[in-house]
Amino acid sequence: MKLHIQQQGQGAPLVLLHGWGFNHAIWHHTVEQWAQEWTVYQVDLPGHGRSAVAPYQLTEILPQLSRHLPSDAVWCGWSLGGLLAMAMARWQPEKVRALVLFATSPRFVTAEDWPHAMTPQVLNQFADNLSQDIAGTLQRFLALQVRGLETPRQQLRQLQHLIGQAGHAQVESLHDSLELLINTDLRPELRHIHCPAWLCLGGYDALVPMKVRHDLGHWWPKLRTVCIKPAAHIPFLSHPEIVQPLLQKFLSEVA
Question: In a 3-state reduction of DSSP, which class is residue 78?
Fold first, then answer.
């Protein structure tokens, strides 16, 4: 499988995994600062950006990522990328020195014992709509990510620009990765993750509600969480002035 990875900087390795429908360009506004202290690997997930289409089962995608990326790295994942980073820390712990997670969850859909997530109907509706109107479906998904922000239109234009910088995702991969989000539940695996882990949530996030951090306390007691109350689904992009000092403190401890 051809996996596009953009590398820059110097120092210990830092792997960046983007969210559903995006590509490595989502990190462009932060990577220059990180590259001063880290060797940064910006990954296009399969079928996204410049990477080739490949199966979206964890048993398929984790070995591919492992093959192309260094061991003992800090893995930073946003949304879908955070789910994959957690899975890598669980099943290939030698690859992951620490986890940095943004607006992500071990389970993206609700259950009787997991109320703070999206309903399966919402994600299934996205999947159904993809076949009929891919552009409109992605646009509605982007709008969800900026809901609640002070300048949603400005943030929406920024997201649209970043997606276009490295190419849109393939429809097949959008479907398959959405199925992965709907069907994956990593909660029972969290007790097997022993590396340091830091999760940043947004107070207005409509996709991963900030209240999920209270639910996570039962499954993952050692997880450190912070909530950026004025942020939505992309706190590292919308509120870097708040996120960066908090993140830098954590990174300095695991470097």
Answer: strand
Query: Into how many domains does the chain fold?
Result: 1
Residue-wise pLDDT for 120-166, tens only, equals: 988 888 888 888 888 888 888 888 898 988 888 898 898 888 888 77
**205 among known catalytic residues:** yes
What pTM does this model have? 0.96
Residue 51 falls in the annotated catalytic set? no
Of the residues 215, 233, 238, 239, which is catalytic?
A: 233
Written as one string, the DSSP assignment of 171-233 is HHHHHHHHHHHHH-B-GGGGGG--S-EEEEEETT-SSS-TTHHHHHHHH-TT-EEEEETT--S
Q: Which of 44, 176, 205, 215 is catalytic?
A: 205
Which residue range is the domain that position 50 belongs to? 5-254
21-38 pLDDT per residue, tens: 999 999 998 998 899 999
CATH code at position 181: 3.40.50.1820
Per the annotation, the verdict on 185 as an active-site residue is no
